[in-house]
Please model this.
Amino acid sequence: MSDESSKGTENNKEALLSRAAHLIALQKELKISLQERFEANINAFKRYSPKLAEHFSKYTPSRKLDFFCTENGQANLLFVEQNEFLYKTETPCDFCANQVEVQLSSTQFSNFTPISNRDPFGQIHLRYIGEMLSLYDKQNFEQNTPLTLNSLPCCIMLGCGLGYQIGYLYSRVEVNNLVLIEPEEDLFWASLHAFDWASLLPYLNENHFELQFLIGKNPEDLYNSLSFFYEQYGRFLSGLRYTYVHYNSAKIEESYKVLEKNRTMYMSLVGFFDDQLFGLSHALQAVLNKKHFLRSDVELPENIRNLPWFVVGNGPSLDHDIAFLRRNQDKALIVACGTALETLYHAGIQPDFYGCTERTPEIADTLKIIPDKNFLKNVILLSADVVHPNVQQYFEHTAIFLKTDEGFYALATEYIPEADKLRKIYYMNPFVGNLGVSAGIYTGFKNIYLFGIDNGVKVGGDKLHSKFNNLYAQWADFDKNVRSNLKDLVPGNFGGQCSTGHMYLLSARIIEDAVKYAKEIMHKDTQFYNCSDGLYLEGVTPVHSESLVKEFDSFSKIDKGAVREFFDSKFSRTVELEKTKIPEFLALNKFKRICNDLIDIIRNPVHTRTEGIAMMHEASLYLYKISQSRDWRLLRFIEGSIQSMFMVMLYILYHKEDLELCLRAYRRGVSLTCHFLDDAKVLYAMLPNYILGKHQELLKGKVGRDYPDSKAPACPPLPNLVGKNYQYGHKLFVKRYE
Model:
C-alpha cells in the first residue's frame, strides 16, 4: 500500500469516527430534548385535555420504539421488532411539510347536499332552504381547495404520526376544526416526545379553534365518537369535510372505510321543523281520538312471540314468494309494508298488520280506494305516532309506537305520566320495510322473515316493484328516474349483484344495525331470514322460500282473533291528555325564548370565513347546552332545520375565492334563517291543529309570512297518489291458497 493510499484510508476512518461521534452526541441531545418536550407537552395537556395528560403521563408503549435522528437532528421513529421506520426518509419534517403542501393544493373538499328544494306540501323549512341554495355557485364550488381559500372548516386527519404535519397544516391555512384520529396509542405517545404540542394548544385556545382527539379508537367506534363531536360543535360541519390521510396502515384504511360508509349519516336522519310539527300534531290527534298505543309494561307471551313474523315489502322479488305466502298466510303474522298492501290484496293474501311510516295525507288515498271495505276490518295499523289522522281513521285496531326522535315522545316523557309505559321504536326509517323489521324486534317476535325487501334491483331485472301492484303502473316515470340513479353495485342476497342507490343503502344499513342490536342487546335468540332476492343484508340469513315449505307444512294455523284481542286489550292502551292541558304540554313560551336567543346569536356581525364558522359554532353549542337541560325536548323541532341551514351557509362561505362575494351571500343566508325562526314561533303556536294538508288553511295559502326581502310563495296543490283512471282490479277480496 502506498503512503498516499494509507493516508486516504486513515482520513476516511477519522471522518467516519467523527461522524459517529457527532451522531452519538446528537442522539444524547435528542434523548434529553425528547424527554423535556414530553414533560412540557404533558403539562400543557393537563390544562387543555386533562384526561389525555393523565393517561399518557403513565403510558407504556405496547411495542418497542426507538427514536433516532441523522445529522439534521430531525427525530424519526424505529419500530424495533419490525426493524421499520415510521418515516422512510432522512428528513421527516421536510417530508411532512411537503405532504401538507401537496394535499392542501390538490385535494378538494368532500361535500354533499342532502336537501331538495322541491316542496310538495308547503313547508317553511324547504322555502328558506330553497332560497339559500340559490345563493351559491355549485359548479364553481368544486374548483376550490383549502389553499386557494386559506381556510378549512373541518379537517378529519387520519394518523397523527409524530405530529409534524399538524404544525405545518396550521401554518398554511386556518383550521377551524381538526378531528385527529390515531388508532395507535403508541404513536400518539411518541408524538408527545417529538411535536411541540405545548405551543400549539394555547394557540388553538386563543383563536377558538377546536381540536378533537380520537386516540386508540377501534374503527367501529368512530361513528359514535364523531357523532358526539358533531352534536356539540354542529352537524353542519359534516357537510363540508376534508380528509387528510397522514400515513397508511391496516387500521387507518379500516377507519377510512368507516368514515366513507357513514359520510352522509350525520345529517341524513336529523329531521326538520315542518316534519316535526306535523308529527306532533298527528300524535296529539291520535291521543285525542283515543287510538291505541303499544305498552312497554306488558310483554308478548311465549306462544305469540314464537309465531313467524312476515315483513312483506313491495320489491320485485316478492313475486317469486307469492305462492309460499298464499299457502302459509294462516301460519304467520303478516305485515304489509306500505304499498305491499295492494299487492297482497290482488294476490289473495290477508295481512294482519298494515305498516305505515309516512305522515303524509295522500297515503289515505291508497286506503280509500280499496273496493272491499271488509279487507281492513281486522287489520291492525302498525305505525309510529306521526301517522296521519286520515290514515288512522281507516283502522278499528291500532298499535302505535312512540318514535323517539320526534317531538311528541320528547314532550310526552315530561308531561304525560304513563308515557314511560309506552313502547318505543328505533331503526324504523327511511322506508316502511325498516318499520316492519323494527316493529318485529321491538314487540318481541323472535322469528322474523323478509319478503320483497330488495333495497334495489337485481342486475338483469327491470322492475322496482311487484307485478301485482297497479299503483306503480301510474308512476312509470318515477320508477324510471329511480332506476337511473341506482348506480352502486353491491352483493345480492342469493349471489350475483344488485343495483342500488343512497336511500336504499341507508335503509339496508339501518336494517343491519337493528338486527345487530336485536341479537346483541335485546333478544339474543331472535332469528332473521331474508327471502328477498335483492341486496344482501349482513346478519340476516339468506333463505329461499321454497326451502321453508316442509318446515311450515308442520306448523298449525294461528288463532289470529286471539292475537288481535291480545294486542287490543292487553298489549296496547289509550293515552290520557286533556285538550285544555295542551298549551302547557307544548311549553310555548320556552320555545319562543329559544328562537329569540338563536336570532340574537345568528345576527352577530361576521367579516371572515372563520368568524362565520365561529357564529355557527356558538349557536350549535347553545343548542347542545339546551340538549343537556330539561328543555332538550324543544330542540327536536328546530335543530335539524337550523343545522341544515348552517350547512348551506357553510357552502356559501366556501363556494368562491372572492371573500366579499361569499360574505354578502352569507349575510343573506343569516337574514333568511332569522325569518325562518320568526315563522317557526308563529307556526308552533298553531299546534295541535297543524295537520299536514289542513295546515295550508292555517297558513292562508302561503308558505310562511312575507318579509321585505323574502315574499312567501303560494302553497302547492297537495299531491294525490291515485290517478282518476286508476282501477283497483278485484272488487272483492278473495283469499287464495294455491
In short: The chain has 30 helices and 24 strands.
